[in-house]
Amino acid sequence: MFNYIIAALIGAMSAVLANRNIAVYNDGFRPVYTEYLNGNMDRKTLATTSFAVSIGLVIGFAFTNSIAMGIVIIHTYLLMGDIIGTWFPDNKKGLILSAIVGALWGIAVVTFMSSIQAFFAMFPVNFLPQLAGVADYVVATFAVFPALVVAYQNGVKKGIITAIVTLVGYMLVARFGVFQIGDFTLALNAPGMAMLIGTIVMIVFAVKTKTDAQGADLTNIFSANIDVIKKNWFYFAIMGGLLACAASQCYLTTDVISGPLALKGSFAEAALVAMVRAIGYIPLVYTTAIVTGVFSPAGSYFSIAGGLFVAAMGLSMPMEPIVAFLVGALIMGLEIILLGTIGSLLDKFPALRELGDHIRDAMSKILELALLVGGFTSSFAIMNEVGLGSLGPMAVMIIWMLNKSAKKPMLIPLAVGPVVAILLGIVANLIKILGLAVIV
Amino acid sequence: MLKIVVGGALNKNENAELIEKYGNGQVEVKVMGDLQAAMALKNGQADYYFGSCQTGAGGALSMAIALNGMSKCVPVAMVGKVLSDEEIEQAIKDGKTAFGFVPEAAASVIPVIMDVLLK
């Protein structure tokens, strides 16, 4: 019941923020608002643009990943919030309608996600446990991504140094990271700590990077926009609280790495990943916000990382969601207060802005490969249920290759593993029902 | 000589290589941060802007749209929607100078765009 309420509130808030022209989630849609606010674009065009840039993502990215992971990815709520909010006129009636339709969308998402689980569970071959295996290698390899970021920004040599530090860090923490304090055993989490060590090395290299890119004094030019965002701090604080609360209860995730980690109960690692990812999004989210005066309903995701940190503390119910809400609201408030300061920092140090690009790039590259490998192994496991194991990897291989060579790719690379695994789950059931299964 | 900047968020170097390859020696390609690239387009230091991101319309184009206006920008390949060769040609004729696309479509849309630009 609680999850329906939270989802309805998130859906409603997100639609209202878009309706009042305060915040939209799609980073590419935010700049379009400049045209609208300047009067160069009417509401109808704004609404159609919003639909055009977001609907493909809702279906092709948000839903496929949510189903494969078994946890709702944040895009499912917030991209649709953009569409709903812009679709209604920005007057009182539009505001109320946005809130209602947004809330209904939130409820619909939760209903869909829980019924799809129940639906698959009715099948003769329940493949959901094997399907979750798609994310296995994401969980196993996420710790190495800072090395890739360093390689992008500072060359392969420094990338290798970072990789070695990360791997040695992993071994040392895994071997010596268990402390006995009286009756209490404290075991440091090896992959999480390894990623943290790698991240520190990454930041050190980034700070030392000399770049000839010229800065731009955006923050001063657009200081009026920052004031507009600050004026609405209260809405953002509530939104931050809701998102953090939802993340702490595994009702939503920001990405395909921290989602599976949180589902496995590894909240500390999930929080770390979400935090580094949030750092990666600062330049894109803050810069688009500063030049447009329209922020993101999720800020730069720090409140969600905060919610996961709260979950890692292992508080009892109902304290946990309450504390998560407060922490999330506080963090989002801080983001708003620091928006201008961080903006000037980015203006002065273009290398930090580049670091953000490289973090996003590295994360998506690692995800792509990890989900592909996970797609191979989980497809094998699913088809093995009907004695036809190799059919799984064969299907993944051919679809990956065909998709790659198609002039118009059908699937984003990230989605190939999860989508094929879901389809194979259905195929496996057909095989079973038709009596074609090979008895092992 | 066409001056082209590569901004956006993902696969900048890969995109630059493709542009170079299909530019037949008639282009000067520079990889930049998305903000710098968008500024270069705005103040005339570059003729065209290319960018990619996971969605084809988010980080790929956001800074270009913010500084140059939507009228200069076109997402040629988004998740679930890739423009046809004719639509791409029309967009360029309509005065679009910034192109956004998903990385997996780069190999198919860059040759088409370069073809039209070099005509």
From TrEMBL, chain B:
* Pfam families assigned: DUF2620
Q: Which domain of life is it from?
A: Bacteria
Q: What name goes with this protein? A: DUF2620 domain-containing protein
Query: In which organism is this protein found?
Result: Dubosiella newyorkensis
